């Protein structure tokens, strides 16, 4: 298994994603798994919108789907998305977490357990606290924890919750700098962003 990037967000996160993903450097080859809060019966337009914005392959995640480089996998509405130690994805209809299915915490925690130091978590704009606990799990496992700067988020509740949990372990950037920070060629000193 190589690297993995997991991204979560809620209200305001689609706008952030549509700015972040096209700005990623070409050398960001890690697969990207995304949990964004959608209504249970809402059509998932996120993969289509991302396909129009990037050269990367963007799909709605399927159960037992292998993770591939340069691919983006989006959780389907009303399913939790999990990462397995076999570098595959899993879908679950377990109870909602933080009133959400998909839950960002579920994705982040499973990714931390599977990828440990090779996992990078990104918490975007949102109006609840889903994702903060999962991002802490990523940091505790030795992975990198990034948060959209609350001042740049349409809904800062989610980034603020992540900051409260992680404190100085969180690397905090507005979207353009966050895209640059995710590049593998980034020097460690650059990735010490603060709000």
Annotation keywords:
7-stranded parallel β-sheet, 9 strands, 195 residues, 21% strand, alpha/beta, two-stranded antiparallel sheet, Rossmann fold
Q: C-alpha Rg, in Å?
A: 15 Å
CATH homologous superfamily grouping: Methylesterase CheB, C-terminal domain
Number of strands: 9
Q: Please give the order of strands in the largest beta sheet.
A: 3-4-2-1-7-8-9
**CATH fold descriptor:** Rossmann fold
End-to-end Cα distance, whole Å, is: 32 Å
What fraction, in percent, of the residue positions are helical?
Answer: 25-40%
The assembly state of the depicted protein chains is single chain
Give, in order, the helices and strands. Answer: EHEHEEEEHEHEHEH
Arithmetic mean pLDDT: 92
What is the element layout, followed by pairings?
Blueprint: E1 4-9, H1 13-23, E2 32-36, H2 46-53, E3 57-60, E4 71-74, E5 80-83, E6 89-92, H3 104-115, E7 119-123, H4 132-140, E8 144-148, H5 157-166, E9 171-173, H6 175-181
